[in-house]
């Protein structure tokens, strides 16, 4: 699959969840390229914005969509990596703030 192909799939998925992909398509395609590279490396699409262990069980919380996506969007309007966002975030009605890492450091070890 290509980043462009994955874009179409995830745009439909996001809409089904009541959220959107970031309006910056070039940024999104970069994130999707990272997801696909991680799938090639590890066999699963771990978040390219986080350090993965290479073990599915240890990384279950950061397999896209990660376990932190919904609370991040609820609190900040965007997930940690900026792939998934609220409609309000995309429309500029929500301040674009830094989303702190929710994953505990020991989760990687």
Mean pLDDT: 95
Helix content: 40-55%
Low-confidence runs: none
Name the strands of the widest sheet in spatial order.
1-2
Backbone structural class = mainly alpha
Query: Describe the biggest sheet?
Result: 2 strands, antiparallel
- Discrete helix count: 5
| N/C terminus separation | 31 Å
Estimated radius of gyration: 13 Å
Shape: globular
What's the arrangement of secondary structure elements?
Layout: H1 3-16, E1 20-21, H2 25-42, H3 56-59, H4 69-76, E2 84-85, H5 87-90
Antiparallel strand pairs: 1-2
Helix pairs in contact: 1-2
Task: Describe the overall structure.
The mean pLDDT is 95. The protein starts with a helix and ends in a 19-residue tail after the last helix. By secondary structure, it is mostly helical. The protein has a two-stranded antiparallel ribbon. The protein contains 5 helices and 2 strands, in the order H-E-H-H-H-E-H.
Give a quick rundown of the structure.
This protein has five helices and two strands; from the N terminus they run H-E-H-H-H-E-H. It is mainly α.
Task: Please name the defining characteristics of this protein.
mainly alpha; 109 residues; two-stranded antiparallel sheet
